[in-house]
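User: For a benchmark we're assembling, each entry needs the component sequences followed by a predicted structure for the full assembly. Here are entry 17's components. Please fill in the structure.
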Amino acid sequence: MDKNNQNIRCNQCGAFMTMHFDNETEELRGACMCCGYTVEVVPVRDENGQIIRGHGGLPETEVHFSEGYGVIVVAEKDGPCHYFMRKKPYTDDLKIILHRILEQSEMIDLERTYVTLWDRQTKQLYCFCRQPPEQFAASAES
Ligand SMILES: [Zn+2]
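Assistant: Structure for entry 17:
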């Protein structure tokens, strides 16, 4: 499968996010690893599953996006990173649990671990423990 990647600025927080274009399905998808915003541009298909094309063979597309509620990225010591896009608001209990895990665990590489919360009311990004890494970081102009 052939994929094309392009870095763009997140519509929501201004961080860098990667859009992936899938040549096979002609779907364009991206997720912001800073605030949890996700966007997908998918071709419209007819009842037979065939992509509906307009002038010049370009597919008709639908755009779906979600604000998200933040991102949990946990890096194992000398191991991989685990990415969780937060689909629901954080509860106070979950915040306390996260703080305890991040403070005490000897399994976690704190240099590569971060937890963010996207506040839909204020449109602000909050970081629980540390800032997201530079390749994802929002511009500092705000
Ligand atoms: Zn973002």
